[in-house]
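Retry 2 of 3 after timeout on previous attempt. Resubmitting structure tokens to design endpoint.
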């Protein structure tokens, strides 16, 4: 594999769910020894928070669980599809928006829901990670739990893609 595999997590404003997913997945890649083969980042479907750090509650939950909380929000751009291998949406609204934004059917196929990688969640179940922004710290803890539960399945998918490209 000549270039890194690239993954981008996307939520609404890029200050809550997608930074949590980015941080957790980056940690899983490091633990698996794949951090030099995979680039991970995140973005929002909207640009309301561009340049801001993670929501303080998201940062607090990440830090309390030993994850990095450094982050700068940005808005997802359609042109990014050309260099991304996988775009991971945090809820079905993001999935729909990203697939509409995709310039080609192949790019639209790159967009997947995060919780679809959690083996404990049936494919007919609720695959959304609820937005914790308007709630309390418990919603951010729930978000982290859902992200962690899906990360192992996502790691397996990415590892397989890297092996097949090698």
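Retry 2 succeeded. Sequence:
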């Amino acid at each position: 594999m000549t270039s890194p595999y690239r993954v981008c997590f996307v939520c609404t404003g890029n200050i809550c769910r997608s930074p949590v997913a980015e941080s957790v997945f980056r940690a899983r890649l490091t633990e698996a020894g794949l951090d030099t083969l995979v680039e991970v980042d995140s973005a929002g479907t909207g640009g309301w928070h561009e340049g801001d750090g993670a929501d303080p509650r998201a940062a607090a939950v990440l830090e309390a669980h030993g994850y990095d909380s450094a982050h700068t929000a940005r808005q997802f751009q359609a042109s990014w599809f050309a260099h991304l291998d996988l775009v991971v949406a945090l809820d079905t609204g993001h999935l729909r928006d990203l697939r509409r934004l995709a310039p080609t059917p192949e790019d639209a196929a790159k967009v997947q829901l995060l919780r679809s990688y959690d083996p404990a969640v049936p494919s007919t179940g609720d695959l959304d990670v609820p937005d914790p922004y308007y709630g309390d710290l418990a919603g951010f803890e729930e978000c982290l739990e859902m992200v962690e539960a899906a990360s192992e399945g996502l790691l397996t998918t990415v590892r397989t893609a890297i092996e097949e490209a090698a």
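Attempt log closed. The longest helix spans residues 137-165.
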